[in-house]
Each structure stands twice: as C-alpha cells, then as structure tokens.
C-alpha cells in the first residue's frame, strides 16, 4: 500500500494542474502578505506632517461651529453636553487624518487570512477533481488496474495522495503568508497576543485542505469527469445560497456550505438566515460554531466518499 501511495503521489506531483495550483497558491499568498504589510505600514514623518496640516485647516473651518457650541452646548450636541465637549467633538484631530490601521494578526486572520484560505481551498478542490478526472479522460485507469487489480487499494491510494499533496501545497501557501507577517509584526514592536488564534486558524485550514480535495476527488471518480465534479461543488454551493431561504422549512441557513466553511476556518461565524420569519433583520442573525460546522462538512464528505468508493468497486472501467 505504501508503494502504491508513493506512485500516486508522484503522479499527483507531476500533474500540470497541480503544478499550476501550487504556483498560483504560493504567488497569491506572497501578494496577500505584501499587500497586508504595505497597507498596515507605519506612518512616515511626511504623512504625519500632512495630517497635522489638514487637522489645522479643519479646525480653522470649524471655528464658527465651536463658538456656537460654546454658547449653547446642549442645543448643538444634545442633552447633557458641556462646553468641554465642543472642541473634542467638533474639531478634527491629527489622528482623524491618519486612517491606516496597524498590523493586527486577529484582524488579518478575519480578512486577508480568510480570503487566502478560501482561495487555496478552491484551488485544491480543482486539483483534486482534476487528478481523478484526468485518469478517466485519458483512459489510463484500466492500465493502472492491470498493475493493481484490487480496486479498493487503488481508490484509497489515490485519495491518500490527493490528501497529502494538497496538505503540502496548503502548508507552503500559508507559510508564505503568515511567516513574513509574524516577522514584520515583531520588527514593528506590535503585540502578537492573537498568535494562538492564528495558529489554530492555520491548523483548521490545513485540516480542511487535507479533506476537501478528497471530496472533490471522490466526486470526480463518481461522475468520471473533472468538469462535472467541479461544477457540482460550486453549483451546489451557489444554489444553497439562493434556494434555502425560500424553502418552507425554517432555520436552514446553517446548511449553507459557505457558512460552514467560514465557521470552521474562523472558529465561529455570524450569518443571516433568510429562512427565519421574525420581526426584524436582527433576529435573523445567527451564530454558527466550529464543531457543528465541522460535523456537517465531515458528514457530507464521508457520504460522497462512500458513494464514490462503492461505485468504483462495481462499475466497469472503460
């Protein structure tokens, strides 16, 4: 079995689609890291001087409003306001013109970190489906079964190769993104107290990166087509976003694939459940935690894998 997995890993590594996925994932991670670091760079002296000048000009323009406020603070600012509130509320400060936020790992995880994780997962899903679909398209699977006739071993070896190969690609992409940002945060003297949250986010991303492509591989083995498998994955995801809301069943928002993926990657997520019928939009906001989301993803993947394995064992291979 180990030799068979090694052979499939070599085939996975040599696939042009997989190589393209690796390049795109690593390059995208580098661009995400550069953009994140650049958008959170410290302010230069010139930027601070410009902000001070803008604040001074704005203060001059607000002089009339400040005088009016000092005469009657309650009318200008509302009940309970005092004269000391006038300048603080009406006169812009230098910091108001320095809008760039510093590098915070928690915020990065919830924005660019999440976007990169989703992008890498999408690419790996395509790679997993293409790995199986190429065997059917080239009709090379018959020759492979001549060398190893036990179909279960062949199916499992391919699944293991997809999982291990995808795990390596995801690990490389995440390292290209997170390692430079961690170093930059330390050099800038910023707090890294959210480091444990990031570590667990990376772990959850790697777990999903090892499982999701196997689900796509299983679909491609079941439908014997890369296009069919990829189209079904993204078609179902899109249809769930649109069709679950109008159903007569209430509280179906947690079944949406994107909600479960986000909840797993971030630890929890808030989502809008359009299927609920209640008084206002706030009552339709729900929280989906990591473990229920992970259970949904695991069950769906297990069912697809079981159907694919059973079909591969029985159907003829052309």
From TrEMBL:
Transmembrane portions of the chain: 113-134, 155-178, 198-220, 227-247, 290-310
Keywords (A to Z) from UniProt: Membrane, Transmembrane, Transmembrane helix
Protein name: ABC transporter permease
Native organism taxonomy: Bacteria, Bacillati, Actinomycetota, Actinomycetes, Propionibacteriales
